[in-house]
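ok, trying the design again with the full structure, not the truncated one.
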C-alpha cells in the first residue's frame, strides 16, 4: 500500500535518479552508475556496491549474490524476485563498480568512496521515509549500525531514524559465515523477521 504522498515521492525519486546517473564524483570508481527502478516503497534494500557484471545488466543484485539473496527471500516469504523488485526500492552504499583486485575478485569500496556516495542514500531515505531498511553485508550494515561483528547484528531488529533495520549477511559465495553456525541460524531468524514485518506483509 502506498502512502498518500506517493505521487510526490515518485516524482522526487525519478528526479533523484536522473541526477544520480549523471554522477562522476568518484574518479577511481567505474561507471556507469548502477541503480534500481524508481519504486516508491516502505522497504529499502541496501547492498554494498555493484559487482563487475551489474553495470552491463543495469540493476543492483543482478548477478550470483543477488540470485542467492532473492532465493533467501522467496523461501521465507513466497515472493518472487520480479515481485520484490517491483515492490521494494533496491539501492546500495556505492553505486559504481569499484574495480578488480590484482589477484582476482572485486575490490571493496574505499571509505572515501563510500563517504562520497552516501549523499545519494541519505537523499533516498529522506524521499521514501521507509518503515523497513534491509542492509546486506558488512559495508551496508556499518552505514546504519556501529558494529562489524555479524554475530551481534544478524537476527536482530534495530530501531533507528524512525525506521526498523533488519540486517542480512553478504550472500556472496565467498562468505562462509552464513554457511556455518551460528550464522545459519541467525540468517534464518533474520529472514523470518523480514517476512513477518508489517511493511513486508503488505506486499502479499
Amino acid at each position: 500500500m502506498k502512502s498518500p504522498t506517493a505521487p510526490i515521492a515518485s516524482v522526487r525519486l525519478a528526479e533523484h535518479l536522473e541526477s544520480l546517473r549523471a554522477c562522476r564524483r568518484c574518479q577511481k570508481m567505474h561507471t556507469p552508475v548502477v541503480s534500481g527502478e524508481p519504486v516508491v516503497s516502505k522497504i529499502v534494500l541496501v547492498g554494498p556496491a555493484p559487482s563487475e557484471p551489474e553495470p552491463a545488466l543495469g540493476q543492483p543484485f543482478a548477478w550470483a549474490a543477488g540470485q542467492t539473496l532473492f532465493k533467501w527471500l522467496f523461501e521465507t516469504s513466497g515472493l518472487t524476485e520480479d515481485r520484490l523488485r517491483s515492490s521494494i526500492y533496491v539501492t546500495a552504499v556505492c553505486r559504481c563498480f569499484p574495480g578488480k583486485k590484482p589477484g582476482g575478485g572485486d575490490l571493496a569500496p574505499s571509505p572515501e568512496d563510500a563517504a562520497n556516495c552516501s549523499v545519494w542514500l541519505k537523499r533516498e531515505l529522506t524521499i521514501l521515509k521507509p518503515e523497513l531498511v534491509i542492509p546486506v553485508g558488512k559495508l551496508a550494515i556499518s552505514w546504519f549500525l556501529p558494529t562489524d561483528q555479524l554475530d551481534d547484528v544478524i537476527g536482530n531488529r534495530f530501531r533507528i531514524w524512525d525506521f526498523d533495520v533488519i540486517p542480512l549477511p553478504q550472500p556472496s559465495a565467498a562468505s562462509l559465515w552464513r554457511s556455518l553456525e551460528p550464522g545459519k541460524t541467525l540468517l534464518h531468524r533474520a529472514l523470518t523477521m523480514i517476512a513477518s514485518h508489517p511493511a513486508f506483509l503488505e506486499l502479499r
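Keeping the full-length input from now on. The chain has nine helices and five strands.
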